[in-house]
Amino acid sequence: MALDALLEEVRNGDLPTHVGIIMDGNGRWAKARGLSRLEGHRQGALTAERIVRFVVKERLFPYLTLFAFSTENWARPRHEVDGLFALLESFLREKTEEFIDSGIRLLVVGDHRPLPEGLRAVIEEIEKKTANNETLTLAIALNFGGRWAILRAAKDLLRAARSIALGPEEVGEELFRAYLPTGSLPDMDFLIRTGGRLRISNFLLWELAYTELYFTDTLWPDFDEEALLYALKDFQRRERSFGKVKG
Ligand code: FPP
User: Fold this and answer.
1) Is residue 156 part of a domain?
2) Residue 133 domain boundaries
3) Whole-number pLDDT of residue 244
4) Which percentage of the chain shows pLDDT scores above 90?
């Protein structure tokens, strides 16, 4: 189907508010072409850029969360980790003006502390400069782990409970959720994972409770506008019951 017709079809259905993507398959894409893994990540960054531009241009949904680096990814070879951080830093530096002009609010969720100084600085700068943008909130999960996030929320809540005399019975889902690094984002409606693996890999854990999941064999560097629209069409076929029986 031509892209325009597909877009029209997708526009006629219900669109999600918050979409997440686990961008997997950069390494395999590179290996199949005799390239270095870093070359795969470079291509992956171009795909991320393309998808973000498309979502903004077509106003497909207002929240997008990309899983860029997990707390487990430190176990990769040092030069791959360094290369990924360098890639992210130059990506963010290059895109600062475009983010500001196109209405993107950048939010980086994850433990910033162990990240290289230059990367932390550019994150802080863009987060500040784009804080009032509203077209798309782009959350990049960086040095992020679902378990880390829940544990951090529990620790912060315990600390707060001490100072404001909060009892265990007063801690409900809504309050706990506010302490998560994603506390300012709405629930995730739809999660796409590329690269053929059928798992969550310690991405958002609390937030995925009722999320529709979509897995595709397409490797992330090959994912494009058409692939996103097909995924959204699939989302539109789902019946979301949130655990209830529909009448
Ligand atoms: C998984 O592929 C991908 C990553 C660990 C990194 C994702 C990073 C990017 C796409 C680049 C920059 C991101 C942004 C937001 C600009 P893999 O290496 O695990 O692939 P494999 O499973 O084929 O080895």
Assistant:
1) no
2) 16-146+187-236
3) 84
4) 91
